[in-house]
Write a structure and sequence with these properties.
Shape: elongated
Number of helices: 24
Oligomer: single chain
Radius of gyration: 31 Å
Distance between the termini: 83 Å
Number of domains: 2
Largest sheet: 6 strands, mixed
Strand order of the largest sheet: 4-3-5-6-7-8
Helix content: 55-70%
Number of strands: 8
Structural class: alpha/beta
Length: about 550
């Protein structure tokens, strides 16, 4: 049964009753009414036919929730994923063309398959390679690029800035629709987040557009959308050269879209008091992307804003998503003609309001206070992402490489301190707190890292350099509590140091060696306590032994005689 529930997680959903279904229906209705206009707006951002945004909000969302562990997430089009799609395809095809659609479908299919395999093989931990500062910086840069891409439609300007600079002109009705919708959406979001403001503003703008004959005056509208449910779509096989150009964007979409999911899933699981099953969510998200591609749409992801709305509206299970999908499917059958007259300026306002929450400049200041190095990495990621546009993947790659380089540097240079006894009874950095040594002619140290190939050389250097500067050292004490792991390189360095110290008549004291470390050493032939080697289970035992090494006053007087 546990294996069956892993294959079919929806079998573990709560048994529905009238009270549960009533609450789930209200939550699903709120999300469904929001995702329809958002899907159309995000499809425009991705350069796709507008109806594909609704397609991506229906069956992909249903499949994703059926096979995910985080059942209260809203899956569908998101601004960040759509921007990545547009950035990946802009060098290869014209937006909205048949080739563009086919390549977007391939992005969805391949990224979905990759997420499915990563989840099935339990490789979800690989996604932790992107640190929080890098993701924060990339997201904020992407948010600015999204807003910049919508300004022309929002303000009633020509699509190309060069055209506007050559002949400055503004379509005032579009400007009014755009700024009016923007103000209304922001005000209603502050007043009542669960209110279906997006749908109502879309309906109101469509009515005003017809009354004012907006399209005849030169305004851009959504236009006619196909009615009916999505048909099965199988793209043609592109050339090998084209597929190779999609490889890196596919990896970035796979990574970034799941990190979007992680930000929502962690909040959801914390509120439910459960451990987040990232591998199962990878499977669900991957299947959602595959279904989205087969519907002729683009890669989906979890929307933080719609997931928050789902939680705010009282969703408790995946039934809320089932109801929201039914709302979307009903809209495909009867609602698409209403969208025909919606001004594109209103769609731009919907996108801008959705991504405004991504712009948080104070996060850089907070990060600077926490770690200046990580703040510098985040700042560099932000700048590179903006400069590399539309090739946004370079921003993520640069950030990941810088973060991994910083991580590797820290592993290669672990914190190794000489310890002394603090008045409060704890062992602390002797030089930082100006403490006396634990004993004369001794060197007591602690390394706050695993003893492996990355840190072993630094530990060896610290001890050898100390002995070179203080040749009268007779005792070396290693407080080994932080050393929770040792590899083959660490074993070799430890055995070599132990032999060198014994050859010079120096006693090695080791306190708090963990069992896995001790077992690895014994498998390598180490015999434990013998000769010039002393082992202690606690720090206090080692401190007491070193204290007894201090010459007493009577001994000093006798030596003087």
């Amino acid at each position: 049964m546990p294996r069956l529930k892993r294959l079919l997680p929806f079998l573990g959903w709560a048994r529905p009753d009238p009270a549960l279904l009533r609450g789930e229906l209200l939550a699903g209705l709120a999300v469904g009414l929001m995702v329809i206009p958002q899907g159309v707006a995000y499809a425009a951002l991705a350069g796709m036919p507008l109806v594909t945004g609704i397609y991506a909000s229906a069956l992909p969302a249903l499949v994703a929730v059926l096979f995910s562990s985080s059942v209260r997430l809203s899956v569908g089009p998101t601004a960040l994923s759509c921007l990545l799609v547009s950035a990946a395809l802009s060098p290869l095809a014209s937006p909205g063309s048949g080739l563009w659609v086919e390549l977007a479908v391939w992005l969805s299919l391949v990224s979905g398959l990759l997420q499915l395999l990563l989840g099935w093989w339990r490789f979800g931990w690989l996604l932790n390679l992107v640190s929080a500062p890098v993701l924060m910086a990339f997201t904020q840069a992407a948010g600015l690029l999204i807003i910049g891409s919508q300004l022309a439609s929002l303000l009633g300007l020509p699509a190309a800035w060069r055209d506007w600079l050559a002949a400055p002109q503004i379509h005032w009705p579009s400007l009014a629709f755009g700024l009016g919708s923007l103000a209304a959406l922001m005000l209603v979001r502050r007043w009542k987040p669960a209110f279906p403001s997006v749908l109502l503003i879309v309906l109101a703008s469509a009515g005003l557009s017809v009354m004012l004959d907006f399209e005849a005056s030169g305004g851009k509208v959504v236009g006619t959308l196909p009615e009916g449910l999505p048909a099965f779509f199988l793209p043609g096989l592109p050339s090998f050269d084209t597929l190779s150009q999609l490889l890196l964007p596919t990896l970035i979409i796979t990574l970034v879209s799941f990190l979007e999911t992680a930000s929502s899933a962690k909040v959801d699981n914390e509120k439910r008091g459960q451990r987040w099953n990232q591998d199962q969510d990878l499977i669900g998200q991957g299947l959602g992307k595959i279904v989205s591609g087969l519907c002729g749409a683009f890669p989906t992801s979890s929307s933080f804003s719609r997931s928050a709305l789902n939680l705010y509206a009282g969703a408790r299970t995946g039934w809320a998503t089932v109801f929201s999908v039914l709302v979307v499917l009903a809209a495909l059958l009867v609602f698409t003609p209403v969208l025909r007259h919606v001004p594109k300026a209103v769609l731009a306002a919907i996108v801008v309001v959705a991504v405004l929450g991504l712009i948080r400049p104070r996060e850089f200041l907070r990060l600077w206070r926490v770690s200046r190095i990580e703040a510098s990495i985040a700042g560099s990621t932000f700048v590179i992402t903006l400069l590399a546009a539309p090739q946004l993947h370079w921003g993520v790659l640069a950030g990941v490489l810088m973060a991994l380089s910083h991580f590797l540097y820290q592993r290669l240079h672990p914190r190794i301190i000489e310890v002394g006894l603090h008045p409060d009874g704890s062992l602390r950095d002797r030089h930082l707190w100006t403490l006396p040594p634990l004993a004369s002619h001794s060197h007591a140290l602690r390394m706050d890292a695993a003893l492996d190939f990355a840190s072993a050389a630094e530990l060896e250097r610290a001890i050898v350099e100390r002995l070179a500067h203080f040749p009268d050292t007779r005792h070396v004490c290693l407080f080994a509590q932080p050393i929770n792991r040792i590899d083959a390189t660490g074993v070799d360095v430890f055995l070599k140091l132990s032999a060198q110290l014994q050859a010079h008549g120096i006693t090695l004291h080791i306190s708090g060696m963990k069992l896995p470390v001790e077992q690895a050493l014994r498998r390598a032939g180490w015999r434990g306590e013998a000769g010039h080697l002393r082992l202690y289970r606690t720090e206090q035992d080692a401190v007491n032994t070193l204290a007894r090494l201090e010459p007493q006053a009577d001994d000093i007087a006798a030596a003087a005689i």
